[in-house]
Design brief:
single chain; mainly alpha; 0% strand
Length: 213
C-alpha cells in the first residue's frame, strides 16, 4: 500500500449520543425496560400483549444495530487500512531487530559453550591430578580450575524466557485444557439433541422466536 492510497483526513461521526434518531431509540428502550419490569405475564391475553411488545423491541434492536454499523464500519475500514500500512512499513525494522538479536544471542551462546568446555577441561585436569597424587603419594602441583573469562562487549541485558511446546496432548493436565465451546455448540445444534459427548450434559431450553416488523 502506497502513501497515496490512504486519505490524509477522514471525516467520521464518532458521537452517536447527539443524533436525534439514536436519542429516540434510547427513549424507546428505556420505556420498554420499564414496561418489561412492571408487566406480569399470567394469562393467554398477557402472553399476546408481551409478544406484541417483543415484536416492537425486535424492531428497535434492529434499528439500533443498523445505526451501530453506520458508526463502526467506517472506523473498522480505516483501522484495517492503517494496521496494514504500518505492518508493511515496519517489516524492515522488525527484520533488523530480529536479525541483530539473533546474532548477539548466537555469539553469547557460543562464548558460554566455550566457557563450559574450558571448565570441563579444568575440572578433568584437577581430577587427574588428584588421582595421580593418590597413586604416587606426591602432592600435585596446583591446577588452575578457573577458565578464562571472555570479554563481554556492551550488549543489551540478557534474560531467560521460559517457553513451551506441545509434545503429547493426551498427557496435558485438564487444568491446562480449554473446552472449545464454539465447536461444541455448533455440533449440539446440528445434532438436535441426538448426540452425546462424555462429560457434557446436552439439554433443550425453550426460547422465543420474534421477528421485527
Amino acid at each position: 500500500m502506497s502513501d497515496t492510497e490512504l486519505d490524509d483526513v477522514a471525516m467520521l461521526n464518532v458521537n452517536p449520543s447527539t443524533e436525534t434518531a439514536i436519542i429516540l431509540m434510547i427513549t424507546e428502550g428505556n420505556i420498554a425496560a420499564e414496561k418489561a419490569n412492571a408487566v406480569t405475564v399470567d394469562s393467554p391475553e398477557t402472553v399476546k400483549d408481551a409478544t406484541a411488545d417483543l415484536v416492537i423491541i425486535a424492531g428497535i434492536k434492529k434499528r439500533m444495530t443498523v445505526k451501530q454499523k453506520e458508526y463502526t464500519e467506517p472506523l473498522d475500514s480505516y483501522r484495517k487500512e492503517i494496521l496494514e500500512y504500518f505492518k508493511t512499513i515496519m517489516e524492515p525494522i522488525l527484520y533488523a531487530d530480529t536479525t541483530f538479536r539473533g546474532k548477539v544471542i548466537a555469539y553469547q551462546n557460543e562464548q558460554e559453550r566455550i566457557q563450559r568446555e574450558q571448565q570441563r577441561i579444568a575440572d578433568d585436569k584437577a581430577r587427574l591430578a588428584r588421582e595421580e597424587a593418590e597413586l604416587t603419594g606426591v602432592e600435585p602441583e596446583p591446577v588452575d580450575t578457573m577458565p578464562v573469562q571472555y570479554s563481554k562487549p556492551a550488549t543489551p541485558g540478557r534474560m531467560k524466557i521460559w517457553k513451551w511446546e506441545l509434545e503429547d496432548k493426551a498427557k496435558v493436565p485438564l487444568d491446562y485444557m480449554i473446552v472449545d465451546s464454539a465447536s461444541i455448540t455448533k455440533a449440539v445444534k446440528a445434532s438436535k439433541g441426538t448426540m452425546t459427548i462424555p462429560g457434557i450434559r446436552i439439554y433443550e431450553e425453550g426460547t422465543l422466536q420474534v421477528k421485527a416488523n
